[in-house]
Amino acid sequence: MTGLGSTMPKLRVRGATKVYETRSGDLLALDRCSLDVMPGEIVSIVGPSGCGKTTLLWSMSGLHGLTGGEVLLDGKAITGPNPAIGMVFQEANLLPWRNLDSNIHFPFEIKREKPDREWIASLVSRVGLDGFGGRFPRELSGGMQQRAALVRALSFKPSVLLMDEPFGALDSFTREEMNHLVEEIWMDTRTTIVLITHSIEEAIFLSDRVVVLSPRPGRVANIYEVPFPRPRSMEIMATKEVFDLQNAIKREIVGEQKSRYAALQALPDAIPAPTH
Ligand SMILES: Nc1ncnc2c1ncn2[C@@H]1O[C@H](COP(=O)(O)OP(=O)(O)OP(=O)(O)O)[C@@H](O)[C@H]1O
């Protein structure tokens, strides 16, 4: 499943360009983004708000078409939803009238597929939800709901897990717990993971590489290697090396925003002067 020595990227984004048609005209969200994600890698995507992170991730999932460019999974173009790709969103999106077990099994009902009950039970146990199968979403904390969403996404044994700001709605303590959980699961399964996050600390904790996108239209501005060994303990996360990397990424994001602003200022009449 890992194939870390292999040279073929698991996911390959080539020249991804996305134009949204809006009432006020075309909006260029992504502009020729290219990125390779190797098998078993964890890659985080960070960048200023609205730079196209979600657009890029959704195009990797096949849920969103591109205006230009392509996304390849194991060398084959992705043209629609793919069972080899699991997704986790900021909201757990559990059906309120179904209990936890029934929520986890729901996608199998829809697809009329037989779930691997042993695998699912091991995941439920792994995320600490043993004994909660009969509970309804309203009876579960936000962290527990997100654990269930993680189980649901992994229940199909995807080879790629895409996560869109999955822990953004959780308190910082629960978020840290979830980060450790993802790290543990990854160490067991070596699933290829692409993660969008607004937390640079989270990106560094989880990733092999952190991709910084420029302000919209999103382009790959820089890619940072994260060289720290796993599991990444609190001691590792408190080192100067981590702190320096965190600052470098922050500076990159802020610098990108500033240079965009400076370029706008330099354009004649780009920002009209007040008339009164
Ligand atoms: N369906 C859509 N129709 C029109 N415009 C869209 C659509 N989806 C996104 N956009 C616009 O495309 C740009 C990129 O959006 P996207 O959600 O991909 O950015 P993001 O980096 O994920 O943002 P955030 O960090 O705030 O979640 C934004 O300007 C957004 O308003």
Verbal overview:
- There is one protein chain.
- The protein has 276 residues and is of the alpha/beta class.
- It has a domain at 43-62 and 83-254: Rossmann fold.
- The chain has helices at residues 53-61, 100-111, 117-126, 142-154, 172-189, 200-206, 234-237, 240-266; strands spanning 11-22, 25-37, 42-46, 68-73, 76-77, 85-88, 160-164, 192-196, 209-213, 220-225.
- The strands form two sheets. Strands 6-7-8-3-9-10 form a six-stranded mixed beta sheet, with helices on both faces.
- Bound molecules: adenosine-5'-triphosphate.
- Adenosine-5'-triphosphate is lined by residues 20, 22, 27, 29, 47, 49-55, 216.
- Adenosine-5'-triphosphate binds at residues 20, 22, 27, 29, 47, 49-55, 216.
Oligomer: single chain
The amount of beta strand, in percent, is 15-25%
* Small-molecule components bound: adenosine-5'-triphosphate
Ends apart, CA distance between termini: 66 Å
Order of helices and strands: EEEHEEEHHHEHEHEEHH
CATH fold annotation of the domain at 43-62 and 83-254: Rossmann fold
Helical amount among residues, as a percent range?
25-40%
CATH homologous superfamily title of the domain at 43-62 and 83-254: P-loop containing nucleotide triphosphate hydrolases
The CATH class name of the domain at 43-62 and 83-254 reads Alpha Beta
> What does the radius of gyration come to?
20 Å
The geometry reads as globular
Number of helices: 8
Query: What is the annotated CATH architecture of the domain at 43-62 and 83-254?
Result: 3-Layer(aba) Sandwich
The average pLDDT is: 90
